[in-house]
Write a structure and sequence with these properties.
- The chain contains ten helices and three strands, in the order E-H-H-E-H-H-H-E-H-H-H-H-H.
- It is mostly helical and 314 residues long.
- The protein has helices spanning 24-51, 58-84, 94-127, 132-135, 138-164, 181-187, 193-226, 231-259, 267-293, 295-313, and strands at 11-14, 91-93, 173-174.
- The protein is 75% helix and 3% strand.
- Helix 3 (94-127) runs antiparallel to helix 5 (138-164), helix 3 (94-127) packs antiparallel against helix 8 (231-259) and helix 9 crosses helix 10 (295-313).
- Strands 2-1-3 form a three-stranded mixed β-sheet.
- It is globular, with a radius of gyration of 22 Å.
């Protein structure tokens, strides 16, 4: 990456969070507790699904993948942020930055795909209950999740390889607390037309198409349950879909805040706050949303706790 009249960039400086130095210890403790809560919450979801045979269904198979994705997604940015908050120079190496960006794209997009798959699962379960087991087979579940992982891995690899062809000048300050693709492209001295074209051609549809499919799925679900006069059935449907709808609203709400809200003079601060929402807050809240609103998850947790209590008494 040596070019005439240009400086070789071996590392980048992450701007971090826009907080005062005297507030640093408080925010460090808060973020550390949030990250530990995210790790424990998502691991508990995964362990409960693995241990409880009643949860070995397509919906919980997708949920376990979502929890794993959330756990990894938070782990891509949070440990480095916490480490940099303790150092005077919050830097990240060039290779480390590209690696962080790669996994950020993989796990971030996986949540998008998994929410779409889970919406399709709910659509089939509610609109075609008699044919659910024949449509949503184990083979189909594994194929949908595996294809999502493969696609996102290749998509992230494409953007990472395209980024390696770019040159960077003296400015190595990233206005975020992690290596974001758009921020890195803006720092480049090279021609970024191909990078932006790939984002527009592939990146846009990756967000828009799953979101539209989720909307279509729930429109069909609502139309289906409106034909049912039983209040009990309607309540059961909404209780079943409530957790998923909450997570969808939280996830896409932050994305809309990033890409569709008008920029202001403190747009960098706004982007940082919204980035915290979908990299820290959303992965932390997802386990609570599913455990608190889901009867099966609460019963599975009680079974595990009761077994431990019995063993402890013995």
């Amino acid at each position: 990456m040596i070019m005439t009249n240009q400086t070789v960039i071996s590392s980048f400086i992450l701007r971090g969070l826009p907080i005062l130095p005297e507030h640093q210890p408080l925010f460090y403790a808060l973020l550390l507790s949030m990250y530990l809560t995210t790790v424990m919450g998502n691991l508990i979801i995964i362990i409960l699904i693995l241990l409880n045979s009643h949860l070995h269904t397509p919906m919980y198979f997708f949920l376990s993948n979502l929890s794993f994705s959330d756990f990894c997604f938070a782990s891509v940015t949070m440990p480095k942020l916490l480490k940099n908050m303790q150092t005077e120079v919050p830097s990240i190496s060039y290779v480390g930055c590209l690696t962080q960006m790669y996994f950020y794209i993989v796990f971030g997009n996986m949540e998008n795909f998994l929410l779409m798959i889970m919406a399709y699962d709910r659509y089939v379960a509610i609109c075609f209950p008699l044919h659910y087991t024949s449509i949503i087979s184990l083979k189909l579940c594994v194929c949908m999740v595996a294809m999502s992982w493969v696609f996102n891995i290749l998509f992230a690899m494409l953007h990472t390889l395209l980024l390696t062809r770019l040159s960077f000048c003296e400015d190595n300050m990233i206005p975020q607390y992690f290596c974001d693709l758009s921020a890195l492209i803006k720092l480049s001295c090279s021609d970024i037309f191909i990078n932006e074209l790939m984002i527009f051609i592939i990146g846009g549809p990756i967000i828009v198409i799953p979101f539209l499919l989720i909307i279509v799925s729930y429109v069909k679900i609502v139309c289906s349950i409106l034909k049912v006069s039983s209040a009990r059935v309607i309540h059961k449907v909404f209780s079943t879909c409530g957790s998923h709808l909450s997570v969808v609203s939280l996830f896409y709400g932050t994305i809309i805040g990033v890409y569709f809200c008008p920029s202001t003079n403190n747009s960098t601060v706004k982007e940082t706050v919204i980035a915290m929402m979908y990299t820290v807050v959303t992965p932390m809240l997802n386990p609570f949303i599913y455990s608190l609103r889901n009867r099966d998850m609460k019963e599975a947790l009680l079974r595990v706790l009761c077994k431990k209590k019995v063993l402890f008494c013995l």
